[in-house]
Write the structure tokens for this entry.
Amino acid sequence: MIGETLSLQSLSKRFGRTSAVEDVSFNIAAGEFVSVLGPSGSGKTTLLTMIAGFEAPSSGQISIGGRDITAAAPNRRNIGMVFQKYALFPHMTVHQNVAFPLRMRRLDRVAIKDRVRRILDLVQLVGFDDRYPNQLSGGQQQRVAVARALVCEPPVLLMDEPLGALDKNLREAMQFEIKRIQSKLGATVVYVTHDQDEAMTLSDRVAVMCGGTLVQLGTPADIYHRPQSPFVAQFVGKMNFIDGECQRDEAGTCHIRISDRITVAVPSPSLDGAARLQRGRAVKLAVRPENLSFAQPDSATAIPGHIDAEIFVGAFRLYLVRLATIGQPIVQIQLPASTSIGPLRRGGRVDLYASKEAFHVFAAPEV
Amino acid sequence: MADVTNRPNEQNFRRPGGSVSRYSPALSLALVAPLMLLMSVGFLYPIGSLIKLSLFTPALDLTSYRKIIEQPIYLSVMARTFRIALFVTITSFMLGYPVALAMASLKRRLAAAAAAAVFIALWSPVLVRSYAWIVLLQRNGVANNVMTELGLIEAPLKLIYNEGAVIIAMTHVLLPFMVLPIFAALRSIPQEYVCAARSLGAGASTAFLRVTLPLSLPGVFAGCVMCFILALGFYITPALVGGPRTLIVATLIGQQATVLLDWPFAAALSTVLLITTLIMVLVFRKAFSRSKGFASVD
Ligand SMILES: Nc1ncnc2c1ncn2[C@@H]1O[C@H](COP(=O)(O)OP(=O)(O)OP(=O)(O)O)[C@@H](O)[C@H]1O
Ligand SMILES: [Mg+2]
């Protein structure tokens, strides 16, 4: 195992008046794979450049293996970094690129040759030693970049959207390969991406960022099933939102009124440690398309609506339903393609059901 | 899962540039035709008649060339010209590279200010700048006065009308031609390369020597060639701040053509200068393309 712990404490970075990263703190265990997920401009790259030491944080502390490195020069941090555009040196061959960090550490010729050969073997690029970067395909360049970052076995590896430039098939193959190399070497990885599937597949834990702040950090299942904010809920996977108003919040159950006649009972956010909702508080009810159905389970409330469209998406069928509730939102329902639900026509009236546990409640921001 | 290692185009080289971005031959010919015409009338024809003038009077006559080779004074003028051009190129590089580096690494507004300074130097007339050096360097000029005031020297030094003065003044005049191409080359190097080098364990100076410098060599090449060639043919500045013992080819040609009216000899000198210049450019090119940084930059 070469990995070391990485810990960030109240890390902030301001560029003039814009705050690119704001008060981000987390601890990453040795050998853990953490993805940083967030929309464009949420401060992911800025976070990485601070960890790598290219930008000094405005405030906060970074430590690796318990050692404070906030003020260390980038070449004294022993952090590997894979850049979004690879940043392979165009005037050096594959071999020279990969040997670069070893030469910087003044290893002798034989040792360098040996280690370069071993890491090129690992990324399956043996025989490409004398090519220049512009003579390689995107995926090959990417593997060279990974090999170069890993060759001196840094305890922490940072990757900034390394697969952004690749097509879907190659991207999936590379994800697999990155994961394989990482678990073989045991490096601690911080992996920036704005692709949620990538983050879900690769990571032990996912950190979701929005507007410079860390909004949730948890396992992929945690993030998916227990989003702590509407932002996370809709950013990771698909989510329907239904406006409503709290009627009662007691004994772990929250009663939400979504139209004059319909009230649904859902798990109270107070179960997750949040404050109880007050009577009359505007809320957003969230439910994922795959948790809705037209078939009635026990003791679930029916939510009436009209079918707006039916879309065949291969593996499943998507229905768009306009609800007869406050604001008449359109919700998506995802059903297996094989399910037959009888003659449903456009404009036809349907009732939607979901189990109580499938709902999340978020208090709407107070006006 | 796709098998990445066995993709069919694995062994293919990637070559940028497709036919879509190319003009058809006829169109490109039409586009360059006006320039070709101008070049042939204003450049090729005079050069041709120059060479003809140097060789035929009206029968084939090599006396002018023989004169250049046989009289040591002319060869020494040649040698001096190349020596001065070489020194000017070297000093321009030594002074210009740091300036270009500073310009490229400055923040936007400061970089604009630095670029403006370079451009103003470039735009102000050569004559003015050459006279400025006379004002600075002459017997009771600024430099001598200041040094006398400070008690550094007893009597005024002879600072002007020698090779040193010519080199200083020409360096000043040609510096922008060195700075601008190097600056352009440095600007085009993505910041990530330096960041990558640093994170891979290189200190600031190592990162510069191993990454920034090699990648800026195309600009260095362009700047050096430009400086060297302009310096070889420089006329005004050496004529103003040089003396009798700093006679260089351009001045010599001027003398022969306008004072002594020996046109065939002036033409022969010009032809020799032209050919040696071409050879120097080719040698430069060869030398630079050997270095790895040059050929492989995208
Ligand atoms: N050098 C800089 N000067 C000023 N503002 C900056 C600078 N770098 C980043 N920012 C700002 O900081 C914010 C975060 O930028 P950052 O590059 O970290 O986003 P990101 O999450 O990496 O986005 P993307 O997914 O598009 O790469 C942005 O609003 C950006 O405009
Ligand atoms: Mg980014």
Remarks:
- Confidence is low (pLDDT under 50) at residues 1-18, 293-298 of chain B.
- The radius of gyration of chain B is 25 Å.
- The domain at 75-291 of chain B is CATH 1.10.3720.10 (MetI-like fold).
